[in-house]
Amino acid sequence: MTNDTLKIPVFIPLIIGIIAISFSSIFVKWSDAPVSVQGMYRLVFTLFLMLPFTLKHIKALKSISLRKWLLLLLSGTFLALHFLFWMGSLKLTTVASSTILLSLQPVFVMAGAYFAFREKTSKPAIIGMLVAITGAVMIGWGDIGISKQHIQGDILSILGTIVVAVHMLIGQKLLKTIPAAIYSFSVFLSAVIVFAGYNTLLHIPMTGYSDKDWGIFLLLAIVPTVFGHVLFNWLLKYVTAATISMAILGEPVGATLLAYLLLNETLTFSQWAGGAIVLLGLYYFLKNTRILKKDKPPAPIKSPVTAGPIVKKG
C-alpha cells in the first residue's frame, strides 16, 4: 500500500461499476435457477477469472494473521448472505423496489463507520446523501408494499442491505494491510463455501441446469461481479466505504431503466424524477466526501457483530 492517490478521476471507475452492477438484477430475473445456486456459481466463475491476478500476490498470504483470516471468512459470509437475501428479493418484487431499498445502504454504512472507525462525514455530504435517498425512495414509491409477496421481497432487500454494509466495513478495515486481489479472492471463496453448505443442507441441486442458466452464471461473474464488486473493493483503497456505498445509489437508476427496456417493467413519473434526484444527490455527496488517507489507520472498533474489532457492505 504505497500509493494513496488514484491516478485517474475517481468518477470514471465509479461509473463503470455502477453500470456493471445495474445489470445484476436483470440477469437474476432471467435465470430460473435458485438464487443460492446463482450466487454460488457467480462467485465460482469469478474466482477462475481472478486466479491469474491473485497468484501475483501469493507471497502476501504469509503475512495474514489468524484474526485477519477469520475476518475474511466473516466478510465472505456476509457477502453470501447479501446475495441470498437481495437476489431472493428479486423473485418476489420488482427491480425498482428491490434496488431502491438496497440503495439505503449508505445509512447503515455511515452509522457503522462512525461507531467502528469514528469516521465523520461533512454536513454537505450528509445533505447529498439525504437528497439521493429521497430520489431513491421516489423511484420505487409506486411499487413498494403492493402485496404480501412484495412486502416479503422488501424485507429481504433490507436484510441484504444491512449485511452488505457489514461486509463493506470489514473490507475497509482489511484492505489497509491486505492486497485487494487477495482480499476479494479470499472473501469470494469464503462465500462459495457458505453457499455450497447452504445448498447441501437444503438439498438444492447444484447441477443439471440449462445452457441459458450457465450462461447467466458466467455473465453474473463477468459484469456485475468483476466490473462491479471487484472494482469497488479495489476503490476502497482510495475512498471511504461510505463513498462507495453512495456511488451504488446509481444502481437503482440504471437497473430501473434496464428493467423497463428488457423486462417490460413500467416506470412512473415519480421514478423518472427520482432517478434525476438520485444522480444530483450522488454528485453532491461525492464532491463533498473526503478521500480516505491510508496512512491514518481507523480507530479500534468494538462490535457485537464481530465479537471483537468490528467489521463494517452490490
From TrEMBL:
Keywords: Membrane, Transmembrane, Transmembrane helix. It comes from the Bacteria. The chain crosses the membrane at residues 7-28, 40-58, 70-89, 95-117, 124-144, 150-170, 182-202, 214-236, 243-263, 269-286. Residues 14-140, 153-284 form the EamA domain. GO terms for cellular component: membrane. It is found in: Endomembrane system. InterPro entries: EamA_dom (IPR000620), EmrE-like (IPR037185). It is a multi-pass membrane protein. Belongs to the EamA transporter family. This is Multidrug transporter. It comes from Fictibacillus arsenicus. The lineage of its organism: Bacteria, Bacillati, Bacillota, Bacilli, Bacillales.
